[in-house]
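Thread: Newbie trying to understand structure tokens

Hi all, I'm a second-year student working on a class project, and my supervisor (Dr. K.) asked me to get a predicted structure for one chain before our next meeting. I've only ever worked with sequences, so writing a 3D structure as a token string is new to me. If someone could post the tokens and maybe explain what I'm looking at, I'd be very grateful. Here's the chain:
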Amino acid sequence: MRYQQLTSEERVVLSTLKLQGLSMRKIGEQMGRHHSTLYRELDRNRCYHIDGAYRPSKAQRRTVARRRRSRRNRHYSEADFKEVRRLLRKKFSPEQITGYLRRLKQPCFSHETIYLYIWRDKANGGYLWKHLRQSPKIRRKRYKAYDSRGRLADKRHISERPKTVETRRYKGHWEIDTVMGKGSTDCIVTLVERKTGFLMIGKLKDRSTHSLNKKTKRLISRNPLEFKTITADNGTEFHQYKAIESHSTVKFYFANPFHSWERGSNENANGLIRQYIPKGTSMENLTQQQCDRIASELNARPRKRYHYQSPEDLFHV
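---
Reply by user tm_fold:
Sure, no problem. This is what the structure looks like when written as tokens:
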């Protein structure tokens, strides 16, 4: 049965019977209304700021006002969504758009309204939905499989890493990973600063230690004073990490195998990169300039966990 709010006449009847001392169940029986509907009416429309009494005329005015403000009664034009479309094309999520505009004290919609707009646009043949993030990949659990990764002498375990790194209170502590393409050996290396989320991306011709070390040294040289530690997984491409350490003051640490949450910043950043380089895409024609542009866009994107400031804002403070 569809719920219907009380009419103005019913509100007068409710007020009259309540003043006579009848219970809500008795009033409901006489009015043909469920008693929970009447309780809801009283809770929504009592004059709590005056004396807590229920006044039918006041209740009617409040109901009319709420209906006028209702989202279902709003009608938006394409011009209203101009800024939303611009930010969507910059790969902002609906929630990031809302938080970013609110931080700037600009008019904005709720993220639910933005999603509804996107799906309407898609139904009409639009392409705004393509700017939303890709679904995360599903990982297969390898039960009882022998873990042969990371068999490297003298490597520093993540448990040896300074405890302050875990708190994310200080800059200079990074996570590193490689992301593969399809159809060629070309791939990328990603470096993410843990406190600010600042990202660097380097293009590699292959996943060899030589290619990785050469590119990582170049990325570090852009901001050498901002590198204190780097945490890696146990991929063999990181086995010559000492060559990077000898080139700078950074120290490498290695996470536990299959413990991706120990490098959560990197995992999140790699997912964001997949918006620009979808899984299954070849990286053969990807250039370093394109990598820098992707990193620049992601670094300029506001983040909820930073109260809608961007990694770029925080990194360069």
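A couple of things are worth pointing out once you decode it. The longest helix spans residues 56-69. The mean pLDDT is 87. Feel free to ask follow-ups in this thread.
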